[in-house]
Amino acid sequence: MTFYISRYKNMDSVEFDIEIVTPMFLGGANTTDAELRVPSIKGMLRFWWRAICGIESLEEMKKTEAEIFGSTEQKASFSIQVVNSNNINSMLELKEKGEKFEVHGHYVSIIDYLSYGTYKYEKRKGNVYFKQHIAPGSSFSLKFQFYNNELKDDILRAFYFFIAYGGLGSRSRNGFGSLYIKNNDNKMRAYDQLLLSSFSAFSTKAKLFTFVQKNTWHTALSKIGMAYKEAKLCVDPLHSYNNRKLVVAPITVNKRNKADLDRHAKPYYLHVNKLKNENFQGQILFMPYNYLAEHKSYSKDKLNQYLKICEEMNAKLSELLKVQK
What we know:
325 residues, 2 domains, single chain, three-stranded antiparallel β-sheet, Alpha-Beta Plaits
């Protein structure tokens, strides 16, 4: 690998003060211990850069991606450092449970429902968390250093989308690991993509469902969690998974997967924004892709069925928005 000393001359840097909004299930080698990790942050930046880059050619996109994020043949165009991390608090117990709903005569909390996989059920104790989380209200700073200023805006724009729509750590698509920064200059424009990509990306089919403001993170997360659960249940009768399995996999029932695929990430991104007025606002981003485009079982019929089921869920989310309190 070639090493260029000139890349360290005239480096530009930016630092962000960040607050963790919802519990962050992020770990290192020991997956049960909470740990703030730079590689995980870079991984999410790469994901959101792909989602907004607007490059239709997969070959061209991978070439530009390598220039920005690096590859086996070249260094990345930037680096990230976690600083001022003294106010990072790790916890095991998750006290906030949100709303509850009934399943088989028992009441389940929506927070437990959304964080499935981070706890285990123990008789007479209920759900006991085995995976630590970084607590809401924890804060740290991220320092970006840019070696190529021509690519700086692409990196920062991906970062702003990551903050606005995504999360960090396990269960981030269910609203966990949401972040807040004070010095956001709102470079939020995504390139329009008329066609669905083979990966998750903004397109004309993307939709954003924004819910009412709440005064705590857990009431905001509870609101969107219940809405997402209701939207899923509207496409299938109770205990049936024929349609839901098109949206997400696995679907674990009694330790068995009811879906056809081992894994398929849902096109719904639950997220909680902290606002400048100190309130919290839940949102659900719908960002579909060309369903199973690179999978052996791909077919146009399955794509159309996937989009049809998503449209039914979106209609339910729109209905819930009109009657929300």
